[in-house]
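Collaborator request log, item 7. Partner lab (contact: R.S.) asked for a structural prediction of Acetyl-coenzyme A carboxylase carboxyl transferase subunit alpha to inform their binding assays.
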Amino acid sequence: MANDDKKPDTESSSASESDGRATQVAVGGASSGTVGESPSPTSIPAGLPFERDIQEMERKLADLEYQAGDDLDITAEVDALRKKLRKRLADTYEGLSAWDQVTVARHPDRPVTGDYIREALDDFVELHGDKAYGDDPAIVTGLGRIGKRRFMLVGHRKGRTTKERLKCNFGCAHPEGYRKALRKMQLAERMGLPIVTMINTPGAYPGIGAEERGQAAAIAENILRMFEFKVPIVAYVIGEGGSGGALGIGIADRVLMLQYSYYSVISPEGCAAILWKDGSRSPEAAEALGLTAGILSKIGLIDGVVEEPLGGAHRDRPRMIQAMRSSIVEQLTALESVPRGELVAGRRQKFRYLGAIEGRFPVVV
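Returned to partner:
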């Protein structure tokens, strides 16, 4: 749980050496070398419940590769096992249930916002503070660049290690986090920069301190203002997309999901607890919620799906990073020629018509 005590909001700046692709600079007094999240591990990823046989095959493959040497030619065995592993991965991930996809979205080794900042961006200058209460580590904001394209990046920060996750409140942002996000998006509009958001939260923090400081009002204000911005906005659900905590930075001209992420009005556990008073029915709730990228794309609630590497983003981080880098450039390129007035009108119409029933007039507010 994050500390609700007030923290000073500074305007000092400090720079650190880049860790990975991006040259990162922190503005606001915090070191930015890892952007608050340690890099994803590169060893065999932690196994999920439905991956036990896959994990065993990966261990065997690692053992064979370790044993291979000048005096022992086992190339044929290694190639055969790799081929078998790829087929098992393809078969397994093709038949994932909604609950299985939720577990993939929550995988501890899955790339997080910090990974994309470090490895997909060429430069990043982190901006801190909401100028009212403090700097919430659960939201990261800053000026990013890919090639010649500059933009404001706003994203949830979960952390990687236990210490980081506690500091970042497991990605559950406080009101000062959403107010920080709004200030930086307003800055982007003044500078004429597009906005890219990365959503990865089980939901906004519901603690007493957060409620006292206006959690609901902060999220509502963000939703309202994001409909008014005259610069392009692209939102990505990179892991968990939970409830109002996701919508607080999720109003965009283009909303895309990574293939095995989820986007829902409530977590499956919360849904099961409310409807059936039984947390063990979370898998059933996940199916009923229709929270997967495939379903949401099919019914038109999102604009696209970013394909993940075979076996999920946690199995091939470099490929996932490159896919995100390419997607960001592609989406910003597509939106840059749209007149600003059309952007605002299109964004409003897009969200007003969500859930419209075919053959009937939707409710217009």
